[in-house]
Design brief:
two-stranded antiparallel ribbon, Jelly Rolls, 1 helix, 12 strands, 8-stranded antiparallel β-sheet, mainly beta
Length: about 140
């Protein structure tokens, strides 16, 4: 039997590092399903090391996150951040500015199901400030 990765608790391999243009810290992606003629979405497993997070961003047709490991945060602009952990499902409405990522104390892995509007599935915005991130980790 072949091991897929070094961490037996993970469902999918860690994947390739994501660009620090859109992520703070170390985040990794394993693509699971590409958009095709039957599916108007892409699906991937995203691993956030401790302290890693997305920039603020929106999705023109929304996104669903399924947390498979660890603990982190999800925050919509103008609302308090909420803790998300293994087993949580987050349904993100279209065009809602938000970010998500690991806590300062735990890595977090989620499956992201991201819908497309035409050829666009994400609009990236500014990074989450260190001050804002520290405030949610209190």
């Amino acid at each position: 039997m072949t091991e897929h990765n070094n961490n037996n608790n993970s469902i999918f391999p860690k994947g390739d590092k994501l660009s620090n243009d859109w992520f703070t810290g170390n985040a990794f992606l394993t693509p699971l399903l590409a958009k095709d003629k039957n599916n108007e979405f892409a699906m991937g497993s995203v691993t956030f090391e401790k302290g890693a997070r997305t920039n603020w961003h929106t999705h023109p047709k929304g996104q669903v996150l399924i947390v498979t490991e660890g603990e982190g945060f999800y925050q919509e602009k103008g609302k308090p951040a909420r803790i998300i952990k293994k087993g949580d499902v987050v349904n993100i409405p279209e065009n809602v500015e938000h970010w998500h990522g690991a806590s300062a104390k735990s890595k977090m892995v989620h499956i992201a199901i991201t819908n497309y509007l035409g050829d666009t599935n994400v609009v990236w915005l500014e990074a989450v400030s260190e001050e804002d991130y520290k405030n949610v980790n209190k």
